[in-house]
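#struct-pred

JT: dropping the chains for the assembly here, can someone run the whole complex?
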Amino acid sequence: MPTGHVMMAMTLDGFVARKDHTIDWLMKQETQGEDYGFEEFMSGIDVIVMGSGSFRTVLGFNEWAYNKPVIVLSRSLNDSDVPEHLKDKVKLSRLDPDTLMSELSRQGINRVYVDGAAVVQTFLRAGYIEDMKVTLIPILIGSGIRLFGDLDKDMDLRLDGVREFKSGLVDLRYRVI
Amino acid sequence: MPTGHVMMAMTLDGFVARKDHTIDWLMKQETQGEDYGFEEFMSGIDVIVMGSGSFRTVLGFNEWAYNKPVIVLSRSLNDSDVPEHLKDKVKLSRLDPDTLMSELSRQGINRVYVDGAAVVQTFLRAGYIEDMKVTLIPILIGSGIRLFGDLDKDMDLRLDGVREFKSGLVDLRYRVI
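RK: done, full complex below.
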């Protein structure tokens, strides 16, 4: 089976976005010149799986951020929601995690970037996440969309590394054990 | 006015205890021989302020952990809830943060250890927390009592330092700015 890998930014109080999906609190961080290893992370990835919320967010960016195929898990979106210039880069899917991972396995996919809180939570619960890179942002926003959600049982993690940036951001790398 | 200081352990998903206040997930961490600086932190503290939930938890420990006066903020507890051997160490109070801090100021108190999620949240919102030492535990427990709560507005933090332990725990020190 392919393995799932997470790279997300989270406020100290656990949020990846405000309730309205905005990330102004992230954009205002003074991270100029700091390398969070996104390129390196992406180089080891075969395909990106995200939810419709993340898809709408990245659609709002000036540039398409991904040089790997993107699968958007959504029951509500249909092909007309994918802009013409992204039709060869983005595929919609309604598969559940098990069926999707089996299908990706058949396609020879090894490493999946699992993006967006809802999808991360689903894949964590299904046991498909191997490691997570959580970048902790030095701010409390009080409410919003939480990165982590309910679990059937505790999930122990092994710390693989910590990196502190001048901006005050902290990169935490964990392996799910 | 005195300043408030926080030292708490939190799961990566933001909890300080399960819903039933248990911290078995914390106790099972293999932290033997690791110094989290509790003694050093306490040496700079004049008084500890905690809520009734934290008070009940520390009452359950074998030994009384504090060598400084403790004020328990509670509207429900009364003097008979304080064990005889702690009557000279623990004082109950029903004061709100503003009145309590003014009162402590009159007593010449400079530094207050603010303990317990509910009290930390109240004192954060009231603007009395100067810095926080959050020890991040490498586990997801899915639900429980969150360290941080709703805020009227964002609260920017400055990272003062990070320390990684062999056990996988990570000490994060932030200043409220």
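JT: nice. Chain A touches chain B through 35 residues (CB under 8 Å). DSSP finds five helices and eleven strands in chain A.
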